[in-house]
Amino acid sequence: MDKNSNAYTFIFAIAMVIVVAVALSFTATSLQPMQAENVRQEKMQNILSTFTGDSIIVEGEKVELTRAVASKVYENYVTEELALSNSGKPKEEDAFKISLAKQLTLDESEQTFPLYVANYQGKTYYVVPLRGSGLWDAIWGYVALEDDVNTIKGVVFDHKGETAGLGAEITTDWFQERFVNEKIYNDSGQVVGVEVKKGYSGGDNKSDNAVDAISGATITGDGVSKMMEERLKNYKAYFEKIKKSGKVAIR
Amino acid sequence: MEGKEPKEISKTDKKKEMIMFLSSSEEKEHFLSKANRKILSDPLNDNNPITVQVLGICSALAITVQLKPAIVMSLAVVFVMAFSNVIISILRNSIPSRIRIIVQLVVVATMVILVDQILKAFAYDVSKQLSIFIGLIITNCIIMGRLEAFALGNGVYKSFLDGIGNAAGYGLILIVVAFFRELFGSGKLLGYEVLGHKGLTMADSTGLYALGYENNGFFLLSPMALIVVGIVIWVQRSRNRKLIEEN
């Protein structure tokens, strides 16, 4: 057959597309369960690491919090998974399966927000999932609050496509450590989250609702500030309930 | 009749011997020949895709802020380039020339997606590091360039070597640039603080920072990658006279 004829070109193109499509969809579908399991385990790892750090104490022994460990012990520590409306009312839904990205596209009155309540070493932690946008693409994370629902126990951030070495540094320990012990309420009782501030001079001040930014990553930093404020505000109604219910007083 | 038979056998034997001789000599050529070694080593220096051909600059700017992503990217490019070269070389006699660029693009994109999917399932942590670079591999002009210039006209094994060589030449420059950018920009190598720890004040700091050394933030920005690549080209040309133009 003439290699330059139209018929040959069409046949070649069609055959190529079919071969490639079959190969790719076969790989994608056969690997999909493993990939989904990795994502699920990573979510558990992220939620746990906000209040345990890089290593977790399991039955008195300190072990590294890997994805495998996280999926094994997750249910021992996370005691409640709540699905909350904007006004703080619990809904009948599997909170773990809620996609925050999808919720944020809905009307505010229809949004549902997951909240994970954990008990670790005799203390209660409230883990709030976050989602916002950085410079190039989505950023997300989890923040664990202590039982006064004000003090941050720890945070985890992740991103889809921030610049390596600049915006992507939000995933590093040294940046995330800056948030520990920061407050999410300001002095006048508003939920403001924690601002990532350029030229921050507060040093170790933990009650000014601000931490130092990463140089060269202004827009990603602003994204983090905005994400913290907006997502935490969604829980304000429920936080007020916790405060009133006297769980704070018990401590 | 009977007299003819032995003659024929000896003829076919001779043919067999010839074939054996040809194929074995070809096999010898495969691994040791000077030409093959040149295919592999040329792109490292004399014909480097970045410093001599000035291709692939875009990704060289984007991912050289730190050493680790640069290394991971180099390995991924070695894999993708070697195997897409092989596939195109296998198909080279059946690809219609009018749609060859599209075919090349499809092959590269398929390879990259396969790598991505497999990493996501079996090496999730590596795949997270690679996430953004996957897209950059598809747009890497060196890969398309080698498919077009080499794999379409050469045998499978030679194309494989050419892919490895060019990807290695690309990776080499990437790693050199990333080394200097991470060292001067953040005072680290592969995330380790090789120049000492920088505290909030000079008293808190150790190593060079205790003496008042500061990181150069300019190294973190893209223009510095271009300047470092320029310096690499300068050094390479001053050492390799062949590369200097006549006038």
Automatic annotation (TrEMBL), chain A:
The keyword Cell membrane applies. It is an enzyme of class 7 (translocase). Keywords: Cell inner membrane, Cell membrane, Flavoprotein, FMN, Ion transport, Membrane, NAD, Phosphoprotein, Sodium, Sodium transport, Translocase, Transmembrane, Transmembrane helix, Transport, Ubiquinone. It is found in: Cell membrane. Its EC number is 7.2.1.1. Its cofactor is FMN. Coiled coil: none annotated. GO terms for biological process: sodium ion transport. The modification FMN phosphoryl threonine is found at residue 218. GO terms for cellular component: plasma membrane. One of its GO terms (molecular function) is oxidoreductase activity, acting on NAD(P)H, quinone or similar compound as acceptor. InterPro entries: FMN-bd, NqrC, TonB_box_CS. It is a single-pass membrane protein. It catalyses: a ubiquinone + n Na(+)(in) + NADH + H(+) = a ubiquinol + n Na(+)(out) + NAD(+). Residues 134-235 form the FMN-binding domain. The chain crosses the membrane at residues 7-28. It holds the Pfam family FMN_bind. NQR complex catalyzes the reduction of ubiquinone-1 to ubiquinol by two successive reactions, coupled with the transport of Na(+) ions from the cytoplasm to the periplasm. NqrA to NqrE are probably involved in the second step, the conversion of ubisemiquinone to ubiquinol. Composed of six subunits; NqrA, NqrB, NqrC, NqrD, NqrE and NqrF. Belongs to the NqrC family. This is Na(+)-translocating NADH-quinone reductase subunit C. It comes from Psychroflexus salarius. The lineage of its organism: Bacteria, Pseudomonadati, Bacteroidota, Flavobacteriia, Flavobacteriales. The gene is nqrC.
From TrEMBL, chain B:
Its EC number is 7.2.1.1. It is found in: Cell membrane; Endomembrane system. Keywords: Cell inner membrane, Cell membrane, Ion transport, Membrane, NAD, Sodium, Sodium transport, Translocase, Transmembrane, Transmembrane helix, Transport, Ubiquinone. GO terms for biological process: sodium ion transport. Composed of six subunits; NqrA, NqrB, NqrC, NqrD, NqrE and NqrF. Belongs to the NqrDE/RnfAE family. The keyword Glycoprotein does not apply. Pfam families: Rnf-Nqr. The gene is nqrD. GO terms for molecular function: oxidoreductase activity, acting on NAD(P)H, quinone or similar compound as acceptor. Its main location: membrane. It is an enzyme of class 7 (translocase). NQR complex catalyzes the reduction of ubiquinone-1 to ubiquinol by two successive reactions, coupled with the transport of Na(+) ions from the cytoplasm to the periplasm. NqrA to NqrE are probably involved in the second step, the conversion of ubisemiquinone to ubiquinol. One of its GO terms (cellular component) is endomembrane system. The chain crosses the membrane at residues 70-91, 103-124, 130-147, 159-180, 217-235. It comes from the Bacteria. This is Na(+)-translocating NADH-quinone reductase subunit D. It catalyses: a ubiquinone + n Na(+)(in) + NADH + H(+) = a ubiquinol + n Na(+)(out) + NAD(+). The keyword Repeat does not apply. It is a multi-pass membrane protein. It comes from Psychroflexus salarius.
